[in-house]
Amino acid sequence: MNAARDLVSEAGVREMIGWLVHVIEAAGALIIFVGALWAFARFVTTGLRRRSLLGEFNKIRLSLGRFLVLGLEFQLAGDVLRTAVAPSFTEIGQLAAIAAIRTILNFFLTREIAQERAEIEHDLKKPAPRSPAP
């Protein structure tokens, strides 16, 4: 009976949530790390193939931006979960500040991703230049 009460107690719930927060934040960090590694590997292989790096660079940045946005969402989820059980005013203030910073970061990343995507789509729709007839 004590084990059941400990599981439902505030301390038990805090401990369980603390564990979940670590898992979620680790997932966010892993997503960002994998995205950065993937973008770096793609950048290097594109450079070694001596292809036009400028056209590929925007695609690489777009993909990296998506990884960053997703990773930041996981980090924010961890912060929200951390303050889910009986938060103090200090914790609520910290969460508000962190949420505001990450939301602003996400907003600008998402906007930049949309701009990059629009540029790539515009470049793909642009007809290839014709060579002059002799």
Task: Give the topology, please.
Blueprint lengths: L1 H7 L1 H39 L4 H30 L6 H37 L9
Helix pairs in contact: 2-3, 3-4
Which descriptors apply to this entry?
134 residues; mainly alpha; 4 helices
Roughly what fraction of the amino acids lie in strands?
under 5%
Mean pLDDT: 82
Measure the end-to-end span: 93 Å
Largest sheet: none
SSE string? HHHH
CA-based shape: elongated
Number of helices: 4
Helical percentage = over 70%
Which class of secondary structure composition applies to the elements? Answer: mainly alpha
Looking at how many chains there are and whether they match, the oligomeric state comes to single chain
Radius of gyration: 22 Å
Unreliable runs, pLDDT <50, ≥5 residues? none
How many DSSP-defined strands?
A: 0
Structure description:
The protein has 134 residues and is mainly α. The chain contains 4 helices and no strands. The chain has helices spanning 2-8, 10-48, 53-82, 89-125. Helix 2 (10-48) runs antiparallel to helix 3 (53-82) and helix 3 (53-82) packs antiparallel against helix 4 (89-125). The chain starts with a helix and ends in a 9-residue tail after the last helix. The mean pLDDT is 82.
Structure, briefly:
With 134 residues, the chain is mainly alpha-helical. It has helices at 2-8, 10-48, 53-82, 89-125. α2 runs antiparallel to α3 (53-82) and α3 (53-82) packs antiparallel against α4 (89-125).
